[in-house]
């Protein structure tokens, strides 16, 4: 990377990182209390389901601390009771949750320490202190779930690295956390992660280890083995499952007039997705990114309702579209790239921009990569390994144009 480019990226990070959190929730006009009530009434109370053998029932679609505040308020009224990334609220925890704390399961997401998801390490003291600080900031008094964010690099780490568990046990003794969970990414073939493995292998080791109670992982329509098989096994063994990164291209489909013209009438990508996730899979629950009140109603009104013919056909069309255009983040290409490009990371950030309406977050994350899409030399070595036969060099070039800040 040139010095000039490096400086541009650093400047970009400094100027954008500070405003990122507030921008995520304040992009649109805040809805009135009446509009929120009306949205909640359209959705109604959400059904709940057991979260594995954790002894808890959670709504089939859970909420997230990163959502737009209108969506959060409406979700509370609809009985949503599990909050992913509750620590992201900082000092802005919704008063309704603070007032009725025991009715909500709030999760703290704890990253690796002293680096990012690839380079950071497991460190008992750093994880312990992170949770203490998050509690002080949020005023939540305790977190129901302490989540190891980004997860383990391989099955050996599950077996041998117990620093996260020790931090959890210390906090649990103090009454500050209650359940242990993780979100697991893929690391197979990642040149920056020694002996990295993919999520299904690592999560199988996690279940065998018997310490964690539930997990989040990437899962959406068109999913294939081995994640499909792992989800079925988790259900059989009573290990809790919450799908994330579920909107595989749904946002861009909605903006594609030709696609929407051919979608069966009476459904939408988000609505069909919600029905599919909550009734046609073996998942316990799922999280869907919500940017505004309309999207909340569109999505959550499908939660727990069976697929109609129009939704099933819609899901088929969505899967076909996604298979052509949207990376499933499987990481199968990673070990074959001579340039060491994190193709799945880049195409994950493309999703944030294209499907979640989170262009700023996507550009901040993209700017932090040591090798961006323009490092691709179009050698084609990765192509035979992509299960979707994506034109990876084209996708990287398009993503670079979309996400690059300068230069
Ligand atoms: S085509 Fe690009 S992404 Fe694929 S292996 Fe070659 S350099 Fe890497
Ligand atoms: S580009 Fe293809 S192989 Fe690479 S992560 Fe995406 S879907 Fe998997």
Topology:
Elements (H helix, E strand, L loop, with lengths): L2 H24 L6 H11 L4 E3 L6 E3 L1 E4 L4 H9 L4 E3 L10 H5 L5 E6 L13 H15 L4 E6 L6 H6 L2 H11 L3 E8 L14 H11 L4 E5 L8 H11 L2 E5 L5 H5 L2 H6 L6 H11 L5 E3 L5 H8 L8 H17 L17 H13 L3 H9 L24 H12 L4
Parallel strand pairs: 3-4, 3-10, 4-5, 5-6, 6-7, 7-8, 8-9, 9-10
Antiparallel strand pairs: 1-2
The structure holds iron/sulfur cluster (2 copies).
Characterize the structure shown.
By secondary structure, this protein is an alpha/beta fold. The chain has two domains: 109 residues, no CATH class; 295 residues, TIM Barrel (Alpha-Beta Barrel). The chain has 17 helices and ten strands. The strands form two sheets. The protein has an eight-stranded parallel beta barrel with strand order 3-4-5-6-7-8-9-10, surrounded by five helices. The chain has a two-stranded antiparallel sheet with strand order 1-2. Helix 5 crosses helix 7. The termini are close together. The N terminus is likely disordered. The site of one iron/sulfur cluster has 15 residues, from helix 15.
The proportion of residues in beta strands is 5-15%
Computed CA radius of gyration, to the nearest angstrom:
20 Å
Spell out the helices and strands N to C.
Answer: HHEEEHEHEHEHHEHEHEHHHEHHHHH
Strand order of the largest sheet: 3-4-5-6-7-8-9-10
Overall outline: globular
**CATH architecture descriptor text of the largest domain:** Alpha-Beta Barrel
Count, helices = 17
Number of strands: 10
CATH class of the largest domain: Alpha Beta
Secondary-structure content class: alpha/beta
What share of residues is helical? 40-55%
As residue ranges, the low-confidence spans are 1-27
Query: How many separate domains?
Result: 2
Looking at CATH, the homologous superfamily of the largest domain is NADP-dependent oxidoreductase domain
Chemical compounds bound to the protein: iron/sulfur cluster
Chain-averaged pLDDT: 91
Named CATH topology of the largest domain: TIM Barrel
What's the story with the biggest beta sheet? 8 strands, parallel, barrel
Distance between the termini: 10 Å
